[in-house]
Write a structure and sequence with these properties.
Elements (H helix, E strand, L loop, with lengths): L19 H23 L14 H4 L12 E5 L4 H16 L8 E6 L5 H12 L6 H8 L2 E5 L5 H16 L1
Parallel strand pairs: 1-2, 2-3
Helix pairs in contact: 3-4
Amino acid sequence: MQRRVPQAGNTGSGHLPFSAAWAAQARAQVNKDNNQRQVADDNSDSDEEGTGSIFSDESRAFDTPVPRNLLATIVIFGADGDLSHKKILPTLFNLWRRKLLCRDVLIFGYARAEMSSEDFRKIVFKAIYNPSQPQGERKDFLQRCHYQGGQFNDPACLAALRTGIAREEAI
């Protein structure tokens, strides 16, 4: 049995608006940028190999076709749970701190418990707190976190979540 692959540009039936052509174009741009960096390394006056560029091989491994100024919103369903507290929130913070998430990312927690965004930020703070990291990074990350409570099977609550996301994305 053969699997059907969606055609490029097909956005119907729930597919993401990104097409195969977009992905190929984005990969080509990343390869072009890497080639330009390699030329800069080759043209270096340095006698030592690999020191001609400010970009290390490690940083090249994290090149992404997603622009750094792209607005992204992440919704964590069950945000007051153990998995969110122990794994998801610390991982998102570390990705954000390492600049592997766009700086304008919004993180929305959604769960059954009713609480304010400030209360949710306290939960996030407890999950990401590490005294060896600068407090400024935590404060900036916490300002990106928001919360909406409601039942998972209630369309009105999910509509309120969409409204909250749209309101924060407009800012």
